[in-house]
Each structure stands twice: as structure tokens, then as C-alpha cells.
Design a protein that fits this description.
The chain is 12% helix and 42% strand. It is globular, with a radius of gyration of 18 Å. It contains one helix and ten strands, in the order E-E-E-E-E-E-H-E-E-E-E. By secondary structure, the chain is mostly beta strands. The chain has one helix spanning 71-86, and strands at 13-17, 20-21, 31-35, 40-44, 50-54, 60-67, 91-97, 103-111, 125-132, 135-138.
Length: 139
């Protein structure tokens, strides 16, 4: 019976942005990976013929939520500055669940802009939006 039991541990999800290992992730959902393309679409003609089209877009949008005190905020902020100044702010991105089930990788990724910075009575999260070139997602 125990072979049907799976365990998820958020501490076993590793995010590597270039040489930087992301730390200080948010206390709830901290990573979202979403395909940019339309996947497989269909059209139905007037006589009922069906045609499918496979999107060639293999890029992704990744959102990473961090605690406001995370050192990774500084890393991503510096990458945005570097990209604006020289165009060299891209980095490889790897997200892996060490317990199995998820591996995402992209050779080229970049932050679209700096995450909003909010201050209040309690600490807040900062969400970084990252776009990728061609990427792979295995689940």
C-alpha cells in the first residue's frame, strides 16, 4: 500500500536562476509556470471537418513569489538593471522538485520588470515575472 502514497515537501523544490539559488520564497504558492502558446487549437468547417493546429510557441511565463526580505529580490533586481543597461540580463532557469514530478528548464530567461515593492504593517511578498525562450516542462 505505501507505494501509492506520495509526499510533497516545498523545501524540496529547488529554483536556480543562473548561478543563483533562489531563497526566501513566499509562505504559500511561490512558483507558477504557464505556457505562452495556445497549445493545440481546433477549427471546425461548415461541413464538419476538423483541423487541429499545434502552436510552435515553446516559451513560458514563470512567476516566483518571494518574501520581501529575500536576498533573491536583490539578484532579480540586478538582472533587470543589467538587462536595461547592456542587454545581458538573461540567465538559465531550472525549477526541480527533488521528490519527483516536476522539472522545468530554460536556457534563456529574463525578468520583464522589477517586482512591485509594498510596505505595510506586516511583511509582504514580491512577485517576479520571468519570460523564457524555448523551454521544457516535465511532470
Amino acid at each position: 500500500m505505501s507505494s501509492k502514497i506520495k509526499t510533497y515537501n516545498p523545501k524540496e523544490v529547488v529554483i536556480s536562476a543562473g548561478p543563483h539559488i533562489v531563497t526566501g520564497v513566499a509562505d504559500d504558492s511561490f512558483v507558477t509556470i504557464e505556457a505562452n502558446g495556445d497549445g493545440i487549437t481546433k477549427k471546425v468547417g461548415c461541413y464538419g471537418e476538423v483541423v487541429r493546429a499545434v502552436s510552435p510557441d515553446g516559451t513560458y511565463k514563470v512567476k516566483i513569489a518571494l518574501l520581501q526580505t529575500s536576498d533573491s529580490n536583490t539578484y532579480f533586481s540586478q538582472k533587470v538593471d543589467q538587462d536595461r543597461e547592456t542587454g545581458d540580463g538573461m540567465f538559465p532557469l531550472l525549477i526541480k522538485d527533488l521528490k519527483g514530478g516536476l522539472v522545468f528548464s530554460a536556457e534563456a530567461a529574463w525578468c520583464t520588470k522589477k517586482a512591485a515593492a509594498t510596505r505595510g504593517k506586516e511583511s509582504n511578498n514580491r512577485e517576479w515575472e520571468i519570460e523564457t525562450g524555448e523551454a521544457t516542462l516535465e511532470e
